[in-house]
Amino acid sequence: MTVTRRHVLRALGGGSLAALAAGGAGAAQAYRFGVTRHARALPGLRAPLRVAFLTDLHYGLFIGAGSVAAWVDATNDLRPDVVLLGGDQLDARMDAPPEPLLRELRRLRAPLGTFAVWGNHDYGSFGRYGGRQYGAPRADWAAKRAELEAEFARAGVTVLRDAGRALRDDAWVGGTDDLWFGTPDVTGALAGAGGRATLLVTHNPDLLPDLPRPAGLTLCGHTHGGQVRLPGLGAPVVPSRYGQRYAMGWVQGAHGTPAYVSRGLGLSGLPLRNLCEPELALLHLNPA
């Protein structure tokens, strides 16, 4: 399910959203963000690990370099050991590398590196499918994906597409391809982890019930927490086949795998948020 402007308007009956927009409340909430802090034990760790998780930047349609610069500054102030980007970094047709975005991401500072996965909107930006901000589909979308992976690498961001890396002797991070437009391979992402503590990054939480093996902790984005939430109702629209189950926060996947679904930082469909503040998540992971 792709959430569109029509879905949101239909779910809200038009009136609530119109009132929100008229008062400017939704637009104001859309561009404020906060830091959420979480402490968890992670089996296999021998020393603490500080993880900054940024997801759903959506650079291009409603988000510019100024927003990304503020998120990067806030991330650097947290002094994370590693930065993880959870997909949907892009949200516009990419005929040329997004240099303003790459310039800001290049400023991220984390001694163990910065890693990313792709999401469904990234695939629109590659040209895998068409849309109002993407134009017509491209026959060479896979080559565009490879080009952007190389550009991200030059900016210091390693894209993990069904692959993983050792962060330390006691920690492994794996990342999967997108659930909707890629071929996510959890086993491939965690291959080589051995006895290390495992972090799995996958854009779409709908993968959680079908994890073929456990992970120490899974990090997801995609849902934006619904982006627009109403008192007593929650989010009228969540881009998940499971409805509210994986809308946001701490959830559980197959094999008892704990997972955190971030509300994300950017915007999709409409430049509005309500009762759903954009978040930069800092995870303090400790030995179990």
TrEMBL record:
Residues 49-224 form the Calcineurin-like phosphoesterase domain. Residues 1-21 form the signal peptide. The keyword Metal-binding applies. It holds the Pfam family Metallophos. InterPro entries: Calcineurin-like_PHP, Metallo-depent_PP-like, Metallophosphoesterase_sf, TAT_signal. Keywords: Hydrolase, Metal-binding, Signal. PROSITE patterns: TAT (PS51318). Coiled coil: none annotated. This is Uncharacterized protein YpbG. It comes from Deinococcus caeni.
